[in-house]
Amino acid sequence: MPQPSTGSLDFDGARSIRTLPLVLDKRMQTSVASPSLLVRMTGIGKRFGPVQVLDGVDLEIYGGEVLILAGENGAGKSTLIKILGGVHTEFTGRIEMFGREVRPSSPLAANALGVAVIYQELSLVPSMTVADNIFLGRSLTRAGWVDDRAQRRQAQRLLDQLGIQLDVTQRVGGLSIAQQQLTEIAKALAQQTKVLVMDEPTSALSAPEVEKLFGLIRDLKQRGCGLVYITHKMEEIQRVADRITVLRDGRQVGTAPAAELPPARLIQWMVGRELGDQFPRHAAQTGADRLELDRFSVLTGRQAGRWVVEDITLRVRAGEIVGIGGLQGSGASELLLGLFGAHGRRVAGQARLNGRPLRIRSPRVAIDQGVALLTNDRKATGLILPLSVLANVTLADLPRLAPGGWRRPQRERVAVEGLSRQLSLRAASLEMEVGWLSGGNQQKVALAKWLQTGPQLLLLDEPTRGIDVGAKREVYQLMNTLTAQGIAILLITSELPELLALSDRIVVLHRGRFTAAFSRQEATAERVLAAAMGKSTGSTEATT
Fold first, then answer.
1. How far apart are CA 523 and CA 204, in angstroms?
2. Among candidate residues 316, 310, 307, the one with its CA nearest the CA of residue 295
3. For labeling, which of 65, 347, 371, 431 is most exposed (least CB within 10 Å)?
4. For residue 123, what pLDDT is reported?
5. pLDDT-derived band of residue 28, with 50, 70 and 90 as boundaries?
6. Measured between alpha carbons, how far is 409 from 393 in angstroms, rounded to an integer?
7. CB atoms within 10 A of CB 419
8. What is the rounded average pLDDT for all residues in the chain?
9. Angle at 172 between CA 79 and CA 196, to 5 degrees
10. Would you say residue 20 has pLDDT above 50?
11. How are strands ordered across the β-sheet holding 115-118?
12. In CATH terms, is domain 14-114+193-271 a member of 3.40.50.300?
C-alpha cells in the first residue's frame, strides 16, 4: 500500500469508501511487541454552548493494544469517542491516521477510515434480522436487489468465527439485551475494523459471554487492531488494559502503562482524591421480617406456559440487604418485576409484607404498599429523559404530592431539593432535562424518585450499572443509610465483588429456581458462581 500523503482531507461518505477500502493493510499485521501508531488525537477541544466539555485532550491508539479510557461520568469520555467516530464534527484540535490528518464528517466516514464505535446505546434496528443488522448500511446486492441469502450465509460464517451462537434470521427486537450486544459487536467486526471503540461492552453480558468477549479482544490484538475500551469495572481494567488514559472534568489527567497504574492510584487520578475502602458496608442491624415469600412463582407474557421464577421461599428482614446471584436468564430480574406487579396477576404462591398479604396487581398498587423498584435500564424504564429533574423525581409520588389532583409546585420543589442534597445530585437546576445529566447523576434521579415514595422494601436491579467509581461509592453509602432506617433491600448486581461485599446474605437462582443460600461469611466468588451454574453448594434454605 503506498504511503499516504500528509495533506488534510475531509472525508464525506461515498468518496472515502471508494478511496479507502476497508481492508487490513500490511501495517495492521504488526505484532504486539512492536505496535504501530494508528490514531493520534492532539489538543482536542469541544464546547456545547457555554460549557467546555473537552479541553486540550491528547490520545494515541496503537495497533495490537487495548487502551482503557477511564474517568468519572461527565469526564468527557463519550464526547471524545464521538469525535473520533464522526458523530461530533465541530471541534478544535487535530486527528491523524497513519500520519494523515483526517476529519470524519459522519459515522459512515469514520467507518470508511476503519473506525468502529460500539456505544452503550445500541444502534440496531429491532424490526430487522440479525443478518440485516450486521450488514446495515452496506447491504450485499445482486442485480440491484439485496441478496438475503448471501447476507445470511456471510453473517453466519462471521458469528461462527467469533463463537457467537445466534439465529441470523431472528429479528433483533426479540433478542435479549446480551444477545443484542453481541450482534452489535459482530456488526462492528464485520467491517474489517482497524480501530474498535467499546463503551461499557459487558454491561449486559453474563460471565461466560464476558469471557467470550475477552477472547475476541485477544484475537483482535493479534491481528493488529487498536482497541479503546471504556469500563467502570476495575477487574476488567486489570484484565485487559495495556495502557490507561484518564480524563477528569474534560481534561487529560495522564496516560500510563497499566502495570504502572495500580487501582488505588487510578481511582485517585479519576476522582482527584483517595476514596478509602471501595465497598463501605456497615454491620447490619436487622429487625423483624419485612418480606416473606412462600413458593412464589412468576409467569411472564414472553414465556407463555412456563414459570420463569418457580417456588421461591425467602425472608428479608428490616435493615438487611439480600443479594440475588445468577447468570443471564436466571430469573432474578423477573422475580423483582413480579413482586412489583409489572407482570400483573401472573404470579402464584404467597407474598407478605410486614406480616400482611402483599397485593400483587400493578406497580401503582405495589408503590402504595411500600414497594419500590429501580430497574436495570434507567433510560428505557427508569426515567423520562426529556422531562426535568423535578418532574422525574416527583413522578411516582404525585398522588400524595398533589392530593385531589391539584399540583403543589412549592411542595414538590421542597421535597426534591431535600433529596438532591441527600444524594449529592449535580445538576445546573431542578428544571434541567434529565437527558443532559451524566449517567451517575441520572441514576441518582432514578433513586430519588423511589425514595420520594417512602418505600419499606427497595428492589435494586443493577443500581451501579454504567456509573463511575465515585458515584458507585455514593450509592453504597446511600444503601447503608437506608438499611439503618429499617428499609429492606433486595439487590441484583452482575459485579460479583459488589454482590459479595454489600450483601448480608446471598441467594442464588438458576433458570428460575433456587439453588443455594450463603451467609456473608460463607459466600465466596467460587461458591456463588458454581450455584449460579446450577450446582447446589450452600444451604438449601433461602430463609436462613
1. 23
2. 310
3. 431
4. 79
5. very low
6. 13
7. 19
8. 84
9. 35
10. no
11. 115-118, 195-199, 226-230, 65-70, 243-248, 251-257
12. yes
- 248 closest CA partner among 54, 85, 100: 54
Contact 320, 485 (CB under 8 A): no
3-state secondary structure of 251: strand
CA-CA distance, 539 to 517, in Å (whole number)? Answer: 5
Give dist(CA 540, CA 203) in Å, integer.
30
Candidates 127, 109, 129, 128; CA nearest to 117 is 109
**Secondary structure class of 543 (helix, strand, coil):** coil
Q: Is the pLDDT of residue 313 over 90?
A: yes
Residue 189 belongs to what H/E stretch? helix 177-189
State the CB neighbour count (10 A cutoff) for residue 21.
Answer: 11
Query: What architecture is the 289-532 domain classified under in CATH?
Result: 3-Layer(aba) Sandwich (3.40)
Rounded to 10°, the helix 148-162/177-189 angle is 100
Gyration radius of the chain over CA positions = 25
Q: Name the residue with cell 485477544.
A: 218
* Measured CA angle at 375 (ends 371, 381), to 5 deg: 110
Confidence (pTM): 0.65
Mean pLDDT of 68-88: 89
Q: In the structure, what pLDDT confidence band is assigned to residue 536 with cuts at 50, 70 and 90? A: low
**Given the C-alpha cell 451467609, which residue does it identify?**
519
Write the pLDDT tens digit of every residue in 158-216: 888 777 888 999 999 888 777 887 888 888 888 778 999 998 888 767 777 788 888 88
**Amino acid identity, position 52:** Q
Strand partners, 66: 227
Give span(s): CATH 3.40.50.300, the chain.
14-114+193-271, 289-532
The 10 Å Cβ neighbour count of residue 8 is 12
